[in-house]
Amino acid sequence: MATSSPPILPISNQQSIATSAQSQPPVATPAVRAFINHLTDSVRNGFAQRRPWSELVDRTAFSRPESVSDAALRIRKNYSYFRVNYLSLVALSLAFSLLTNPFSLLLLLSLLAAWVFLYLFRPSDPPLVLFGRTFSERETLGVLVVLSVVVVFLTSVGSVLISALMVGVAIVCVHGAFRVPDDLFLDEQEPAAVGFLSFLGATPSNAAPVVAARV
Fold first, then answer.
1. Residue 169: exposed, middle, or buried by beta-carbon count in 10 A (0-12, 13-18, 19+)?
2. What is the C-alpha separation between 177 and 173, in angstroms, rounded?
3. pLDDT tens by residue, 163-205
4. Do 68 and 123 form a contact (C-beta atoms < 8 A)?
């Protein structure tokens, strides 16, 4: 009587699966895609809440403030109303300064790429190996912090960013001090935090735990 051979069970190669999972580039992970989508939605919502630029530059609404306290009150009211427009002006000042200083722009982009690919969205299971040396997460964080200090404070990047911010803030303060806010009305149901940076104070999305777990 012939005996039947036992059935052959499929065996998955766990090593190949782990290798393919580890070889997935950081930018293709769901956390990165979720973070980018959340950031894109925040910027889109910020642009949707901006005020008309014609209202910002209405020459009939400008007058000299009566005192320093009056100028400060105008700045607060105008910032509450033109928040997104003011942030756009500061962003344009930063972009113009960086574009006119390509070396600083290259250094800043390299620093941001190092943070993104080496720490924020890099899988934590395989350790970082550079030049034949293995770096732990704490060592990687320390190297990136030191590198950030060197790039910002010991190169032209810091001076370019600070000067651009000062120019942008000066433009905002001058406009806010001379723009009469009497004809501006805020919607009572409008949230307190709007604009491009509102996602920083919002409820963390599904991409936030990936970044927060490393900090």
1. middle
2. 6
3. 999 999 999 999 999 998 876 665 544 544 444 444 444 444 4
4. no
122 in Cβ contact with 30 (< 8 Å):
no
Q: What is the DSSP string of 15-69?
A: HHHHHHHHTS-GGGSHHHHHHHHHHHHHHHHHHHTPPPHHHHT-GGGB---SSHH
Find the radius of gyration of the CA atoms of the chain. Answer: 26
Asked if 123 and 22 count as a contact pair (C-beta separation under 8 A), the reply is: yes
The mean of the pLDDT values for the chain is 76
> What are φ and ψ of residue 109, in 5° steps?
-65, -40
CA 100 to chain CA mean position, Å: 21
Tally of CB atoms within 10 A around 133: 9
Paired with 134 in beta bridges are 129
Provide the whole-model pTM: 0.65
